[in-house]
Specification:
The structure holds two protein chains of two kinds. By secondary structure, chain A is an alpha+beta fold. Helices cover 32% and strands 30% of the residues of chain A. Chain A has helices at residues 2-18, 89-96, 98-122, 161-173, and strands at 23-29, 35-38, 41-42, 46-50, 53-60, 64-65, 67-73, 79-82, 85-86, 131-133, 138-144, 152-157, 183-185. In chain A, strands 3-2-5-7 form a four-stranded antiparallel beta sheet. The relative contact order of chain A is 0.10. By secondary structure, chain B is of the alpha+beta class. Chain B is elongated. Chain B is built from four helices and twelve strands. Chain B folds into two domains: 33-101, Immunoglobulin-like, CATH 2.60.40; 105-210, no CATH class. In chain B, a hairpin with a 6-residue loop joins strand 2 (42-49) and strand 3 (56-59). The longest helix of chain B has 30 residues, at 2-31. The chains are: A alpha+beta, B alpha+beta. Chains A and B meet through helix 4 of A and strand 12 and helix 4 of B.
Chain lengths: 197, 216
Amino acid sequence: MIIVLIAAVVFFAVQGVGHTGKIATTVEVQPKDSVVKMGGAVIGSGTIYLSPGEYSFTAEKTGFTTAKQTIIISKDNHYVGLTPTPVSTEAIAWSNQTENALAVEQIGSKRSDTSGQTASTKNPLIDRLPYSDILGPFTVDYAFDTTDSTKTKIVIMDSTANGRVKALQWIRSQGVDPADLTIEFQDFTNPTNQGDI
Amino acid sequence: MYQDRRKLIWYAIFGVLLISIIGYTVSYFGSTRTVAVTSKNITSFSIGEQDKKASKQLAATKQSVRVKKGKTYTLSYVGTSGYANGSTTVTPSTTTVAINPDYSAEKLSGILTTDIAAINTAITSSGTSIDTLYTIQKGTLSNFGAWYFTTLTYNGSKEDASSDTLIVGLQKKQGVWTVVLTPDIIFTTAAYPDVSRDFIDAANAYQNSHIIPVEV
């Protein structure tokens, strides 16, 4: 009995020391039997302990396209939600079942919050967006890269030529150098880029 | 007895003087620090505490100056013939100042007069319809006559959706002017990963100082 107790105490002490400075990160996946990998190594879903930093996760399953997520783990940002997209007939049938569709939606919702937090960590300007100036006129907002949800671009919209100059002034006034951003001017088509030179 | 008293007074005076000199020396070196200075193409430089009129004139050959700890200084220099005069700030954390003035405005103006036709030809061929849609303004040469930035002002109506004034950046490489940053509103390192950060920063600084929005 005493040996068991000592063993238990030692076990939990070792566990505690092993997790010092690490963050409990929840990894969820739908379908549940998808193969979850972190940096190429199979880890499965559940709770894992990670040091703060950037990690890439994937979830693979036959009949589905591989889901990918890159996340900067911090004490405020420790959720990974992976939902491979159904492609085959069987996979689509699975995803159409109400309980499965609901589970996928819940993971997607949690992941959206996480992506926003990751983007804010990488680009502090995002916390102050959207910003509009009707006298510019311009609106500055952000959007996620379509191929990598951890990358964002600044979108300047509802603007005139004068508004775009004011939008750049506003970005600078926030302590952000436009040179460090990816900027899309929605209302501007560069006339010098049209057709072959 | 009288002579002994005189001797004592002289010893006292000497002692006070010695202590004062030692005190001043310790205090001076304790409250000041050395800033290393490297320079070329200057005749002289001067350094003075910021917001104070007094400054200390120094020869170009001087390789270090002592400044008060915690104080900010302005170091001004006079360029040799063909090189610009200028100034730089010496903050409390500055340990080294490298003075290397750019060409003088007169020299850059002379280079620009010679090169402007080649520069404008390069700009015109860097995009579509630049010669008809835009007026190429007279820009600025910098970095020893090797960098050129200018604006392209739109010839059409200000009401047109894309009537923006554009910036263009060129570099002189092996004697040939080349457009490095093609006409655009702003430049980013993401769009130009192979262009030096200094050049992108200089182009964006030109945009910030030369394209002033109209206050509505």
